[in-house]
Specification:
nine-stranded antiparallel β-sheet, 2 domains, 260 residues, elongated, 2,3-Dihydroxybiphenyl 1,2-Dioxygenase, domain 1, mainly beta, Jelly Rolls
Length: 260
């Protein structure tokens, strides 16, 4: 199917697969801590002197430390659109962020919003459009194919492979995450008390699962359900390790896993 073309132009416009806005920073480490720990944005790419964060399904923001800061950083506004503006304010304050204003309606622009600042002095606006014509959820309902996974950093005493196909990092999906994992023989990770339900299906090998009730090994074709709020620890002590699929609802996030 052809994409729209500009008036008077016989060529179709090529598709756009995503968007990245790059900004400069004088302190990449402090900026990274704010956007990862405080805002909770997943790190999509670490390029050394630049870091790129996923904001939404196809929207990204990047920060680079190799260029000077603008003279007036307060003139830069990063707007995040959400239906739960009040929830965002509570979430940010729980992370220690200081909001400049309380959420208020702006009749002139038809929005409900508030502001805070990042470590660079850039203004961050959390807003909701009051008009029902602006529906940020419609795009997320579109069907699509996930061509490749994102490799997610793993915790444990040995290297483990995690490939997220669906989730906050690879597809911008917050409701559920689906990841393929491969842990080597002798691998173990810290215990955790997550804020999500986790469903694990073993494809190969054997996976050891330890809970407050005891320890069990599950093998190929077997599954385990870990309910949110319950302590659990995973390991693969047997020969050959384990290969398995983990489904988390809501989607996995470092801020929700609560490791020991």
């Amino acid at each position: 199917m052809l994409t729209p073309s500009a008036p008077g132009d016989g060529l179709p416009r090529p598709p756009i697969g995503g968007q990245i806005i790059f900004l400069h920073t004088g302190d990449l480490a402090k900026t990274g801590d704010f956007y990862e720990r405080v805002l909770g944005l997943p790190l999509a790419a670490d390029q050394g002197d630049c870091r790129i964060y996923r904001v939404s399904r196809d929207g990204y923001i990047g920060f680079c430390g190799r260029a000077p800061m603008p003279d007036r950083p307060e003139t830069v506004i990063i707007t995040l659109v959400s239906e739960d503006v009040d929830g965002w304010r509570r979430f940010l304050e729980s992370k220690g962020a200081e909001c400049e204003t309380r959420p208020v309606e702006s009749p002139a622009y038809g929005i409900y919003h508030f502001f805070l600042r990042d470590p660079n002095g850039y203004r961050i606006e959390i807003q909701r459009f009051l008009s029902p014509d602006w529906d940020v959820s419609r795009e997320d309902e579109m069907s699509r194919i996930i061509r490749a996974p994102a490799v997610i950093p793993a915790h444990g005493n040995q290297p483990k492979i995690i490939k997220e196909f669906i989730g906050r990092v690879n597809s911008g999906t917050e409701g559920v995450s689906i990841a393929w994992m491969k842990s080597p023989e002798g691998w173990t990770e810290p215990g955790q008390t997550p804020e999500f339900d986790e469903y694990t299906l073993v494809l190969k090998g054997r996976l050891r699962i330890k809970t407050r009730s005891g320890t069990e090994d599950i093998g190929e074709g077997e599954a385990f359900i870990a309910s949110k709020g319950e302590w659990v620890q995973y390991s693969s002590p047997h020969e050959g390790g384990a290969e398995y699929v983990a489904v988390c609802a809501p989607a996995f996030s470092p801020d929700l896993v609560h490791r020991d």
